[in-house]
Design brief:
Two copies of one chain form a homodimer. In chain A, helix 6 crosses helix 16 (331-355) and helix 6 crosses helix 17 (357-373). In chain A, helix 4 (81-95) links the parallel strand 3 (67-73) and strand 4 (100-106). With 376 residues, chain A is of the alpha/beta class. The first copy, chain A, has 17 helices and seven strands. Chain A binds chain B through residues 109, 112-113, 116, 118-119, 149-152, 155-156, 158-160, 162-163, 165-167, 170, 178-180, 182-184, 186-187, 231, 376, and chain B through 109, 112-113, 116, 118-119, 149-152, 155-156, 158-160, 162-163, 165-167, 170, 178-180, 182-184, 186-187, 231, 376.
Chain lengths: 376, 376
């Protein structure tokens, strides 16, 4: 039987998270929850559902040992709510220990090969993206932010890896693709494994928070870590997977490619809140029916807004869920409330972000100096 | 009808140079010879036989316009006589005009992906290789020497190109290969086109001297130059092709892979001259037969030593050829003479090379500073 492939480049959703675990070997997060001193909303709300080798990172936290938090962004447009998910996880794992260092890759190489956006253009987008992450809470003191296209170690590693990898290996993981996408995949593997190079203190646990659809990149990086263990001493990178937020039009993945399906952190607050008012919901055809049967929060992008991002706390999420299921919460009022939360968040975020643009440039400059001075 | 492919990674010879022209569109050098102020031995002896767009470089020379001479070496071992061919051409084209700049790539990425030699090891080999070229006559004042693995522009260009290239394009040029070899090919295309980036003065004619078996890399680079013309203004690179020197065991290509088939510039002079004495020749089975029928210089690696590298001048080459054909020159004496020439050359070269090791390091350091300070 041919197993399904996860496709990080497509817009197809990961529909069945249980099957993900069974077929791809992603382990549940649940049994490890007691080991966290403090749960993030992603953990307490079951948004982060799967992991590989997460225990290794928890061991490092417990033992006050260094570990890296690795993630990246494609600077192909504005920071949207899907991107915020990864950023939130990254910031959370940075906050769990003073021994954590964030490596944040601005994937301009992939943005070029995937979206055709030239480097000089994505470089501008990137500054704003970095300000967004700072506004979300990244500690710049323990963060290294770099452009993929400038980081010779990443590109060199990708060439190194291209030796160990066979076309069949890549086909098995990604399917039959054009070489540009395979190359981008090898560059990403370079990103993921770079924090373990000698100039950054050598092999260490690395946690990579990603959407479940990105797991193929992790499998590739783990295969390559094993293949090149003798030369580099790589430890297989750990990963934690979050569910994908529903698109405002009800599609399974919020995507930069489908206009109107997504909210970005750069959207003007008022039109954004209007987008929420016009969103698809899990409501019934009539108010009567809804009062009788209750709504369906499990397919509702508005419920996802509360759960993934904008609820005040876990209790708030539960309240929305229960009221919806019981039929006491109707879509009109629920959307009004969500729109208000979105509007307020975007207003606050915009202010913070705008005030952090210089900090973003400084972090990029500081990182560039640091990387240039690190021995090779 | 399926056309044959040239294979730069194999050891198969290019047997029929006329077919090369007919099938691959490589033009003869001959009609352009009158345009050179001064012929190199490679040109006067018919060793450089083919070209693409060579006239464009001759125009630049005539018009005192800038052009680049681009070549590279795989630092996978010592500099052998095949490598010296390319170096000789490069040095010749540098000497034809004050407006020529040499870009010399130390292809450590390809050396890793093709031969598995780690970067730190190939870096050592490279210093000696650079000293070899200096000893052969490279002018360090107008030369930029860089490591592929350190030059972010090359690696970035290769990623850029990976977008424009399709698997079918690569298969048509190189056949079905592992991705590592495709990636190395794209990196080489980055080497070939880098001299035309804005920070090096923008689009300009570039001459790439190579063995005929390397033509696929040129075809790829020319295709990519056309595809990315709008973005970069690339002019298709020009090339000049030299015949391949026969291996000492009579095989068609002198290769680092076949022990005893090659002479390197690092070989101790005395054992080297002994290698020549033991070489395959184009002689007949008996002395009598040879006196009667004459020898076959066209299949003789010892004749190639005279013609390609060690004869005093063109007249010397012709004399050896004629005497051999007429049966007045026998293999024993001919090999003795060649062995003496080889021994003397290697002794002289070794002295020069050893005295230039510091200059090689300086050229590498100077190039590194220059490249780091060039705007990006």
């Amino acid at each position: 039987m041919v197993k399904d492939r996860l496709d990080p480049w497509g817009s197809d959703a990961v529909k069945d998270y249980a099957r993900l675990q069974a077929e791809f070997g992603i382990e549940p997060v649940q049994p490890l929850l007691t080991r966290f001193k403090r749960l993030s909303p992603h953990l307490s709300r079951g948004i982060d559902f799967g992991q590989r080798d997460l225990a290794r990172v928890l061991d490092a936290i417990d033992g006050s040992k260094p570990y890296a938090v690795m993630s990246g962004i494609k600077p192909s447009g504005d920071f949207h709510l899907g991107t915020k998910m990864t950023a939130d996880d990254m910031i959370y794992f940075q906050s769990l220990s003073r021994n954590a260092t964030v490596f944040y890759s601005i994937a301009d190489v992939e943005t070029y090969s995937d979206n055709g956006i030239p480097f000089r253009e994505s470089a501008k987008t990137a500054v704003k993206n970095v300000a967004d992450i700072l506004a979300l809470g990244l500690d710049p003191e323990r963060a290294v932010v770099y452009f993929q296209s400038e980081e010779v170690r990443v590109l060199r590693l990708s060439s190194t890896f291209s030796k160990g990898v066979t076309n069949n290996m890549l086909k098995a993981i990604y399917g039959e693709r054009q070489i540009g996408l395979y190359m981008a995949a090898l560059v990403q593997a370079g990103d993921i494994l770079m924090p373990q190079l000698p100039e950054f203190g050598g092999p260490k646990p690395v946690i990579v928070p990603v959407g479940a659809d990105q797991d193929p990149h992790l499998r590739l990086a783990r295969d390559l870590a094993a293949k090149h263990h003798e030369e580099f001493g790589f430890i297989p990178p750990s990963s934690i997977y979050h569910r994908l937020i529903l698109s405002l039009n009800g599609d399974a993945k919020m995507s930069k490619r489908a206009e109107g399906s997504l909210l970005t952190l750069d959207d003007p607050p008022v039109p954004s809140s209007r987008k929420v008012l016009g969103a698809f919901t899990g409501g019934r055809d009539t108010v009567e029916e809804q009062r009788k049967l209750g709504g369906r929060p499990e397919v509702c992008p508005v419920y996802d807004l509360y759960r993934f991002h904008f609820a005040h706390d876990d209790g708030h999420v539960e309240r929305v869920f229960t009221e919806c299921r019981e039929g006491t919460r109707l879509c009109g009022g629920c959307k009004q409330e969500a729109a208000g939360l979105v509007k307020r968040f975007l207003e606050d975020h915009r202010k913070k972000r705008d005030s952090l643009m210089n900090d973003a440039k400084e972090l990029l400059a500081k990182s560039r100096n640091y990387l240039a001075s690190a021995g090779r």
